[in-house]
Amino acid sequence: MSDHELKGLYYHDPFQDDHDHLNGAACMQNQKFPPISGSSSAFNLQGFDPSYMSFTECLQGETPMDYNSLATAFGLSPSSSEVFSSVDQGSQKQFDLGDHLGGGSNHDQNQVTTPNSSVSYSSTEAGAEEDSEKSKKDEQQKGLEDGGEDSKKVSKAKKKGEKKQKEPRFAFMTKSEVDHLEDGYRWRKYGQKAVKNSPYPRSYYRCTTQKCTVKKRVERSFQDPSIVITTYEGQHNHPLPATLRGTTAGMFPSSVMLTPTSSMAGGCSSFPQELLFQMPHHHMTNQGVTAPSVYSHQQYNQLPDYGLLQDMVPSSMFLKHEP
DNA sequence: CGTTTTTGACCAGCGC
DNA sequence: GCGCTGGTCAAAAACG
């Protein structure tokens, strides 16, 4: 194994956006957490505190919050193209997930980082990094309509014109036996690829609802096979399939935590169910920036104005799914 | 029989 | 230019 692998620098896919999230975070710095009217707020998970809506709810887009809120919660501003662009472009190719997942050290598992410390993250670096692969792919899709000839193979002649705007994406990790976690939506698998440096393949799913372009990628961590990494891309433009509702609502963790990626495994093990937000601290840590910290549910609730979350803008979540 | 999964092929981008 | 890689397509197979 090469050095970079050992360092876990290769886990880019699900988190290559995370860096962007980070950038998005920077963009969000002046925004407050989505002020949810009355009983709901942010994207906490249901089942724990009724005042919070479930993660699933957020995903569904049924509530006023919708994905936008979730995105916002994650530092993605649906209304901000800037954030979007920074969010979804894969400017970052490498991510030291390895540290988070397996190896990593187990430090600061219960420390609380102050908002200030995370603020330093805001320094964007790739935020304006033009449209990388994403747009290119779009081209691939749309382009080619011209050559209906033999090129029909892969080219799907998509109505060009519309410069498909970058989709917001976010990833989260789930401790689960099953790869494809039920999230309430119906997905159709459209591809599977072997993941570099990992014995586990990555599966590609698309929302089966017509006109819904949401996609998601699911792969298992090669560092910790018990962890499934799910990356959502896009925003559902429809409600949850009725048949699946209810059964999934309670599947998501009830507590929210911000955690140092390196302590993820350990942190998860101490709770029946938990949701952890992983801070995109990759290179940050190298710069001496305080590493993300773990927040208990209570701590989270106590965060004034959610300033912490706001500043930290998690790029991904860690879910522990107990079947 | 309609829908979903499987799977090999294809394409574009990137690094060398 | 070449090889590698991620993402997608689509025909065939599997499934309910």
UniProtKB/TrEMBL annotation:
One GO molecular-function entry: sequence-specific DNA binding
**What's this protein's name?**
WRKY domain-containing protein
- Quick one: where's region Disordered? 81-172
Q: Which residues fall in a compositionally biased region of kind Basic and acidic residues?
A: 133-153
Source lineage: Eukaryota, Viridiplantae, Streptophyta, Embryophyta, Tracheophyta
Q: Where is the composition biased (Low complexity)?
A: 81-91
Q: Which InterPro entries match?
A: WRKY_dom (IPR003657), WRKY_dom_sf (IPR036576), WRKY_plant (IPR044810)
Q: Which organism is it from?
A: Rhamnella rubrinervis
**What cellular component terms from Gene Ontology apply here?**
nucleus
Q: Mark out the compositionally biased spans (Basic residues).
A: 154-163
> What is its subcellular localisation?
Nucleus
Q: Where does this protein chiefly localize?
A: nucleus
Q: Show where the WRKY domain sits.
A: 176-241
Alphabetically sorted, this entry's keywords are:
DNA-binding, Nucleus, Transcription, Transcription regulation
Transmembrane stretches, start-end: none
The UniProt regions of compositional bias labelled Polar residues, in chain numbering, are 106-124
